[in-house]
Design brief:
Blueprint: H1 2-19, H2 23-34, H3 39-63, H4 69-89, H5 95-115, H6 130-147, H7 152-162, H8 167-189, H9 197-218, H10 223-245, H11 248-255, H12 258-296
């Protein structure tokens, strides 16, 4: 089983390196469902794994100029305070409640990422306003410490959707923020949770290797593909986490019902039709713009 855990840990690092998030989204389920670790211990361990792995990932992104240092440090500092408070509050919240909250926030954030911004970003190469960075940092940090998420699934959308940073820059900057907040959240958890350090170091070593590999690939992926890929990845993991919290009897009944699969099939068809309509509308708009430009010449 340890070989499976190590192989899965590589995906943790690759996710962080390419997407700037998803580390805890993968780490928590891996530790809970593959390594058999109790929920709160898994959350605390994930904060250590993701913190160290994110630090390793920052290096390759920084070399490529994909890190906004002022924004990242201010966001991270504000997030550390919120993460520590969240880690202390988590002591009083049942593990199942934390995992359900974790899954719901994953799905909500993923939908926002897939939809994207209604208008194109402005001043994408500048640092973000300090006030906004501090506010967003505290809120995201609180969630980070409470549910054990490194924060990438919230930091990346905050930087890309609200701040207008290019996706690749949001990814690189988020790793700096994640590292800072993860260690702060871990400090809060260590007051009440014991970590299996041998397991934690094993998972971290594999994840660091994956992070370095992911960092090399990130700069070669188109912005739109990266953003939507991030969103769909988080949705899949969020649904999985939520599904695991449903009682086994209920889960088996729902999955065994023809109605469930019929609804899923209809939803898939509706999604494909909507995507085709958007593409056609985009093609028409592009054609009209081309005609207009030709007439003005």
């Amino acid at each position: 089983m340890i070989a499976v855990v190590v192989a899965a840990s590589l995906l943790i690092g690759i996710s962080l390196g390419i997407l700037g998030g998803g580390g805890s989204i993968l780490t928590v389920p891996i530790l809970v469902y593959l390594a058999g670790v109790e929920a709160k211990q898994a959350i605390a361990t994930s904060l250590f794994v993701v913190g160290v792995t994110s630090l390793a990932g920052v290096v390759s992104h920084a070399r490529a100029g994909r890190v906004r240092w002022r924004t990242g440090l201010i966001f991270g500092a504000a997030g550390m305070a919120g993460a520590y408070i969240g880690g202390r509050l988590a002591e009083f919240v049942p593990g199942t409640v934390l995992l359900v909250a974790f899954g719901l926030m994953m799905v909500a954030t993923a939908v926002a990422m897939i939809r994207g911004r209604k208008e194109g970003p402005k001043n994408v190469h500048t640092e973000l306003p300090v006030g906004r960075v501090v506010l967003d940092g505290v809120v995201v940090g609180l969630v980070t410490g409470l549910v054990g998420a490194g924060g990438g699934f919230l930091v990346v959308p905050a930087l890309a959707l609200l701040g207008g940073l290019p996706m690749t820059v949001a990814v690189g900057t988020s790793l700096l923020v994640i590292a800072m907040k993860s260690f702060a959240g871990l400090a809060g958890y260590l007051s009440s949770v014991q970590i299996d350090w041998e397991l934690a170091l094993t998972v971290t070593g594999a994840a660091v290797v994956g992070s370095l590999l992911g960092g090399r690939v990130a700069g070669r992926i188109p912005q739109e593909v990266l953003r939507k890929g991030f969103g769909w990845f988080v949705i899949v993991m969020g649904v999985f986490v939520l599904g695991q919290q449903v009682p086994a009897q209920v889960r088996d009944t729902v999955l065994g019902s023809p109605v469930t699969w019929a609804v899923a099939a209809l939803a898939a068809v509706a999604g494909v039709v909507a995507l085709l309509r958007r593409r056609r509308a985009g093609d028409r708009s592009a054609a009209e713009d081309t005609r207009a430009s030709q007439l003005t010449r």
